[in-house]
């Protein structure tokens, strides 16, 4: 079901650029939406509701047959005492009641089993759908949104919130149907027998129901606190494991343990509060229930003695009380389920309904490549978290074309990586435009743009998979020969051939079994495998020695003949051969030209060159400046 109009309007206006994860708005439209999701499985839900009603009705018959049987047994006793010899009619009536009771109990069991099965099945189907939608949405949302939310938080919510919604079908929808049948039907039968006794027997229902609801709502508040603590714990653990080398290097285990311990202790305090609340409310409810039962026995016993009702009717009232005890306590559970489903559903739908701030324009066509010329035209950019006047990039003009190499150098934080991010449209420019063959990259499909621009990220990320799967990540249909060719170009083939399982060797979690330089080379192989028109190397040879880097450059010669290359680097030997080198400072191009002209100008580039030559860092004197073409 589509969201109700007001919700739809509210959600439509939200784009992920303006979204924060801390949303706690709860409304009925969320519950309606989950219910509609459940009723999309029409057949299963119809069976579940029908069997819930039938199960409830058969459960209601049990006390009635029990009461009937007690009256019949009492009649038999009375007849025996009076010396009536032929009791066969009364005995067969008692047997019939006993068989009916057994039949009602069996049918109730069968229908309950069916409703549990179908309710659980629909809940699981909703969980499955939501998991897919949520995960798909996390893939769609723009990086500026991901920059602001914590991964651990998203993971915890993706698991616990989906669970909260999933349980709504059984504990919310079907439980309320069952309770209505049991309390409604039970009240009708009891009032028909004796209104006074009915009032006494049912007196515990509102008290226990309200008490259970209050307790559950309080428990829910503590559950939300608990969930937040679990998110914090996941975040700490995730960060700690991700940065385990840094933690060890700084001998910070004790500090990290302390951090984890503090949050764990807070979680324990909340858990203890939950236990106290639970035990207190359970005790109170049990007391009220047995008090009502005692009163029923007392009032009902007096009525039996006075001949106003039969012993069977008193038994019936007591049996009803036994049957209603658990469902009435579950009113609290139901109320909690409503609150939990609306909170959890609200949080999930707020993510699922977000419109990514970076998305294809309606009707956007694929990029049409003619020459493969990429231009930055007076580009300005600020990250969303930055102050308005404080731009990350300002007035950037660049042109990359096939067969040419652009080098970008500059101090840390000057905006080099940001240029690469803008090229792949991971963020949108805030001024000016970026074009490929004259087409603004915001007007073409993201998929066609990202097929055109291959970026080797500064931080190589490898998947826990075999080497060939990692290399072919951008083109899963690539044959072994293309994979090997890419690895050869990236100077990794010989190393891979020496591994125990060759290209099928598994790369450990995040590629930890490879060295930094090997990971960078694998990332280069991955980027050049698909047929992109522009290759961006973002400081992606920093961990590779100069000789290997030179070999990579040599083997890239053929590849770059018909492609543009942008090399971002701190080490000047990586880019001094470029056709044009731009020197970036505080987001502005302060110098540009080829190596010779920049050296002749004696500016920032020349100073850096001298510094690197003097300190022996780079460049090596043997490295030949500008050879023309992207080598
Ligand atoms: N996702 C982000 N959100 C907010 N600010 C960011 C983000 N990424 C980078 N920045 C900021 O933008 C500025 C430029 O960062 P960028 O990564 O482009 O620099 P860089 O020149 O590539 O640096 P380095 O040489 O250290 O890699 C920096 O001040 C950085 O703090």
Total helices: the number is 22
- Which whole number gives the mean pLDDT? 85
- According to CATH, what is the topology of the largest domain? ABC transporter transmembrane region fold
* Strand percentage: 5-15%
Distance between the termini: 56 Å
> What is the gyration radius calculated from CA atoms?
36 Å
* Top-tier CATH class of the largest domain: Mainly Alpha
- How many structural domains are formed by the residues? 2
Write down the overall geometry: elongated
Q: What are the bound molecules?
A: adenosine-5'-triphosphate
Helix content: 55-70%
At CATH's second level, what is the architecture of the largest domain? Up-down Bundle
Q: Could you give a short account of the major beta sheet?
A: 6 strands, mixed
Organism: Thalassobaculum litoreum DSM 18839
Keywords: ATP-binding, Cell membrane, Membrane, Nucleotide-binding, Transmembrane, Transmembrane helix, Transport
Subcellular location: Cell membrane
InterPro entries: AAA+_ATPase, ABC1_TM_dom, ABC1_TM_sf, ABC_transporter-like_ATP-bd, ABC_transporter-like_CS, P-loop_NTPase, Type_1_exporter
